[in-house]
């Protein structure tokens, strides 16, 4: 039986989490896939950095050593940013590799090109981890809910900002301190501006809308407001009114007209989304047959996100073994 070989582009929070899961659950994964899944090479910026549990010989700073390695079946892109990540993914597809990514910025920015290139090269392209961390919402929308017309998507899809708002609300902690904590916990983007200004949520809403409504709306065309201007006074005012401030992604299809936005909203404490705390995410999906569904779980962090990456790797590994 052939082993399935994986090349990792990136070994930070998410790459490290996925690598850890492939090791700690190796036996279970092999049994489910019907073959061993081995990480054989890893791309990093600094190949001399000491990385616990990782054999230094596996690390390279040359992407071609992974993209053009004939032994590698699946390339996992977890670098972050649009470039060079998108170019690496497109090159990998053209070299006949299946691609998995957690990179919503790259998927949203180059959606059509990535989907088209995967199709043209007859390779799988999966990106479950790009929205909602561990939550399998993309999988649900593209498989078991496919027989529905989706009419609405609404939710909290950024762990960093939800963590910040929760700690500011529940503990009265200052914004800057909590942002630092979210960075230390591996929730935030390399440049957290994308989190706090709502751009990360716009990227995720773009992906959700493309899959749920079959309509691509560029992230820059989604009216977007983040949480950087929310003050302790705003939070106290909401609290006094029995409300919580949450950063909400919303898309609604009505009479064939799709409306969408990303903005902080005051929700009554009784609203289910008001009870979603810390780095947790929750996404309501409404289908014309299924009715309202709520997907809930950890939206950021190495192991939760790694879980979704590993799920995608396994689905592909079953096909290529
Ligand atoms: P990190 O910054 O922790 O890790 C990035 C990794 O990529 C590092 O190993 C870094 O190398 C390597 N890298 C970055 N740029 C290059 C380059 N140009 N050439 C070679 N290596 C490079 O990021 P995360 O793991 O947090 O995020 C990765 C992706 O996953 C992002 O797209 C992010 O949006 C997405 N994501 C993150 C989540 C999270 O909770 N953190 C959740 C869901 C998605 P080195 O180690 O040498 O610096
Ligand atoms: N920075 C992102 C967040 C990572 O905090 O939600 C998960 O996509």
Q: Could you list some keywords that capture this structure?
A:
321 residues; alpha/beta; 5-stranded antiparallel sheet; 13 helices; binds NADPH dihydro-nicotinamide-adenine-dinucleotide phosphate; binds L-homoserine
What does this 3D model show about the protein?
This protein is an alpha/beta fold and 321 residues long. The chain is 39% helix and 22% strand. It has 13 helices and 11 strands. It has helices at 13-24, 26-33, 64-67, 85-94, 104-109, 111-120, 137-142, 159-171, 175-184, 193-196, 199-213, 232-240, 302-320; strands at residues 4-9, 37-43, 59-60, 74-77, 98-101, 125-126, 150-156, 243-254, 257-268, 280-287, 291-298. A 6-stranded parallel sheet has the order 3-2-1-4-5-6, with helices on both faces. The protein has a 5-stranded antiparallel sheet with strand order 9-8-7-10-11. Helix 4 links the parallel strand 4 and strand 5. The longest helix has 19 residues, at 302-320.
Helix content: 25-40%
Order of helices and strands: EHHEEHEHEHHEHEHHHHHEEEEH
Hetero groups in this structure are: NADPH dihydro-nicotinamide-adenine-dinucleotide phosphate, L-homoserine
**Major β-sheet annotation:** 6 strands, parallel
Overall 3D shape: globular
Structural class determined from secondary elements? alpha/beta
Main β-sheet, spatial strand arrangement: 3-2-1-4-5-6
Using only CA atoms, what is the Rg?
Answer: 20 Å
The helix tally amounts to 13
Low-confidence stretches are: none
């Amino acid at each position: 039986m052939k082993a399935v070989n994986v090349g990792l582009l990136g070994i930070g929070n998410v790459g490290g989490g996925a690598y850890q899961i492939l090791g700690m659950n190796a036996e279970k994964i092999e049994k489910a896939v019907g073959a061993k899944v081995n990480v054989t090479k890893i791309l990093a910026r600094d190949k001399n950095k000491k990385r616990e549990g990782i054999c230094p010989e596996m690390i390279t700073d040359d992407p071609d050593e992974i993209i053009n390695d004939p032994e590698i079946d699946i390339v996992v892109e977890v670098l972050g940013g649009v470039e060079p990540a998108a170019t690496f993914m497109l090159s990998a597809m053209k070299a006949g590799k299946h691609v998995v990514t957690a990179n919503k910025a790259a998927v949203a920015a180059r959606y059509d090109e990535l989907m088209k290139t995967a199709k043209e090269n007859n390779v799988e392209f999966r990106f479950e981890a790009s929205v909602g961390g561990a939550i399998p919402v993309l999988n649900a929308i593209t498989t078991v809910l496919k027989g529905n017309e989706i009419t609405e998507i609404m939710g909290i899809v950024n762990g960093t900002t939800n963590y910040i708002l929760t700690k500011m609300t529940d503990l009265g902690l200052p914004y800057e301190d909590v942002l630092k904590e979210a960075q230390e916990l591996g929730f935030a983007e390399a440049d957290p501006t994308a989190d706090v200004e709502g751009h990360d949520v716009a990227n995720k809403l773009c992906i959700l809308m493309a899959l749920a409504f079959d309509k691509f709306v560029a992230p820059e065309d989604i009216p977007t407001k983040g949480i950087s201007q929310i003050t302790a006074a705003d939070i106290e005012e909401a609290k006094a009114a029995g409300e919580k401030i949450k950063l909400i992604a919303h898309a609604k299809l009505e009479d064939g007209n799709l409306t969408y936005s990303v903005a902080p909203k005051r929700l009554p404490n009784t609203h289910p989304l008001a009870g979603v705390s810390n780095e947790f995410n929750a996404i309501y999906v409404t289908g014309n047959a299924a009715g309202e569904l709520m997907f809930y779980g950890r939206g950021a962090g190495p192991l939760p996100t790694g879980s979704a990456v590993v799920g995608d790797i396994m689905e592909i590994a079953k096909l290529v073994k």
